[in-house]
Records
---
Amino acid sequence: MSGSSAEPETEAFLAYRNLLFTVAYEMLGSATDAEDVLQETWLQWVKANREQVRDQRAFLIRITTRQALNRLRTIKRRREAYVGCWLPEPLLTAPDVAEDVELAESVSMALMLVLETLSPTERAVFVLREVFVVDYAEIAAVVGKSPAAVRQIAHRARRHVDARRPRQPASPDEGRAVMESFRSAVATGNPQALLEVLAPQAVLTSDGGGVKHAALRPVTGAGRVARLLAGGMGRLEGTIITTEPAVVNGNPALLVRLDGEIDGVMAIAVEDGRIAGLYYVRNPEKLSRVTSATPLTLH
């Protein structure tokens, strides 16, 4: 990106940068791809005749969404060849994101995986309407549909997501308390302690990207998950394992280190005071964002 912060086009873009990044990230599930989309958005923005732009925010969202849609259709094919389970690229986020319950849910690992089951157009409509409250006419201009068609797509996407999203997202305080209990159970490697914090039908999904060891399919059931976690720690005898609490994708998570080196990120989804979902990202290509010194504010 060129130009000084004093230039009007730069100031306008930077004012909405975090918003545009969030739109692209929720569309793509990849911070790396989202950054590429922002670069493409910037290039189109500096070429635009801004005297004809009545609403800068709407204009920039429109460019970003169209770029993300183009990229989404490409990376969906790439993900079909992905080794094992695919999880979104985790983001280290500022604590205030967790306090915004709706935003925290929208970027959570659990909901991002649900969004993966939508078509590209459904995903764009859902993100713009449900997360950013963009009006139907503006969304129609973005996706090339009529407002009436967009309303139908939004209804269909909302119904699909509602059937699969967590019933009642945990409050920030509840999430932190459950994570602390889980962290203690992991530290001891005690299967019984793990069972007490896991929901009966808890699901563990791990993503190694074919580079690091990970289960090729989700592991379901508290007993199986507890045994896998306890057994995995036992196989690392002689290795110093440390866990550090963090806020990842607006929700509680653990940064897991082996002998001081980052091994992965373990995020959780909490329902009724227990962990219903565990998401362990070990693919090294997806971990650069959680080692960043500056957590992101996604507003």
---
Amino acid sequence: MTFTRFIDLSGPEIERFGADTVAVLPVGAIEQHGPHLPVATDHYMAEAVAEGAARLAGESCDITLLPGLAYTKSDEHAWSAGTLWLTARTLLSVVDDIGRSLAAGPVRRLAFLNAHGGNSALLGVALRELRTRHGLRTFLLHASLPADQGGASPATELGMGVHGGLKETSAMLHLRPDLVDMSQARRAVPEHLTAYEHIGFGKSVSFGWTSDDFGTGTGVVGDPTGATPELGRKLLDASIAAAAAALRECARFRPDRPVSS
């Protein structure tokens, strides 16, 4: 059972991958995260959780870590300087090309480790596209499930901590404290949205939004002011452990037969 970095291997070494080897692709983003966080926040998160989980899972199954995708679907932040984004069509084509290339070799299992909520719907579509076009077993894991997609959000954020809030800021204080400026951190929770019963983050009716829609003026949707590196370490450790457990299942997942004991 092994952990490898795909780009460190030779062609003949890659040819020796087995059918149960899982290729893990970190998927982040380069986009504004308010005045207190770097634009590469999601990229750092994806890389950290993917590598930690791949190393941990590699103790009991074969995992190879692909180079991450940094430029992805971030048009909800296109209004801000620093956001570098691809259209949905372009990103879907890129992901399809990567899957096609992998399928030309022995890899048959591809897991996306996503750290940007704006990618989730597109990657969900890509799972079936890659399955039907290239025969890959495909999986979507999250570094941290966003609040607008069923993930937890601290009470102080009223279920609306979706961007640049407590979790992401804490994680970056742990990963790259040199890039965090807490003197610029401000609470930016659109509390007026609680007046809507059906429409909202995590509610029965979702809505299209950009990060400058909420009247906060910062691009943040959440409350970073209580962030700490200790909380960040705890959150990242939990994310890595959960993703590693999921990768172990990805390596043995077969929908056509009962799970062996």
---
Amino acid sequence: MADWVASMRAGDYHAAWDLTQQDLAERDPVRRDDPALPYHLRWVWDGRSYEDRHCLVRCYHGLGDSIQFARFLPLLARRTRSLTVEVQARLRDLFVSGLDCPGVRFVAFDEAHPLPPAECDLEITELDFALRATPADAKPAYLTAKAGPLPPGSVGLCYGAGDWDRDRAVPASLLAPLCAEARCVTLMPEATTLDVLNPSGCPFDMMETAALVAAADLVITVDTMIAHMAGAMGKPAWLLLKAEPDWRWPAGGGRTPWYPTMRIYAQLRPGDWAPVVERVRSDLAKWNAERKEG
């Protein structure tokens, strides 16, 4: 696993795929899409051909994972006879309206009643391996949404991450200096004391959230679904990243090939967010000044 992570971070996708191919060869076919396992621990694709077949893509991981790997759906659709995507219910309408996938059928995933197998099933996070496709093989901006009513210069803020990795979250109070540098809107579905345009919070609705992201001139976010949404839309996005990040982000910060419009601000020491936020505040002040001058 460590070698695979290192290869993915380095952009050596072929080395990562070779490791995945070795793993696939060692898997017990009886355990494919094993109902005894939680969905996020299952593997789905057994290596069979998807060429000119009726295919089903299952979304068993997080919302951000589905958004990240949805970039490969058009590539897959061109090689299959038909393609159905069983996507999280919260994402279905956004994918239907915002992805350029004519002819692809999107079905809301009901965990209690998943769709029956097709001729070829794949999990969405397996698509890069199955297609041997890198981020450069897909459109850099592949998701659209109708922009909501925000004034020019608005900055979207997201400070919370999922409960399963609280180390990704930033205390909301630390972002107060950012609100003093630019007009901000929260992308969190909760009330906040931050000086934002919507102190009651962002609606817990994916289409309305996407509308705010689309309307913002800049998104500043922790490593969560909002980061993937902003990157998939091609929005300027600044990612606040913990010192030991997930496999998809380069250790030490910088840029990522997954989202060319994203800038990464990484912790130098685990848990130490203050220097990260100060770097962001300084750059945000410059960004807002340049925007007003331009």
